[in-house]
Amino acid sequence: MTREEGMSSLGRGIGPNVFRAVLMNASQLASYDFFKAELLKTKYFEDNIYCHFMASLAAVSIEYAIRCLNMLSICILG
C-alpha cells in the first residue's frame, strides 16, 4: 500500500474512525450514568458492584444496538 499510494495512505480514514470512537464512548458513558441513576432509584440496588455490573450491562446493550444499526445503515447505503 505504501509503495503504490505513499505513507499518507496509512492515515486515511483516521478522522472518521476517531469521530466514531468518540461518539460510541460518549453514548456508552451517558447510558451507563443514566442506567446507574435509574437503578439506584429502585429499592433493589445500592451503590455496589451489582449496581455497577447491571448498569454496565445495560450500557453495553445500548452500544451493541447502536453498532448494529450503524452496520445496517452502512450495508444499505453502501
> What is the overall shape?
elongated
What is the chain-wise order of helices and strands? HHH
Main beta sheet strand tally, sense and closure: none
Structural class: mainly alpha
Q: Would you report the number of β strands? A: 0
How many discrete structural domains? Answer: 1
Average the pLDDT over all residues and give the rounded result.
86
Topology:
Blueprint: H1 2-5, H2 14-41, H3 49-77
Quick structural summary:
The protein is mostly helical and 78 residues long. The chain contains three helices and no strands.
Structure, described:
It is a single chain. The protein has 78 residues and is mainly α. The protein has one domain (2-77). The chain contains three helices and no strands. α2 packs antiparallel against α3. The radius of gyration is 19 Å and the shape is elongated.
Please supply descriptive tags for the structure shown above.
78 residues, mainly alpha, 78% helix, 3 helices
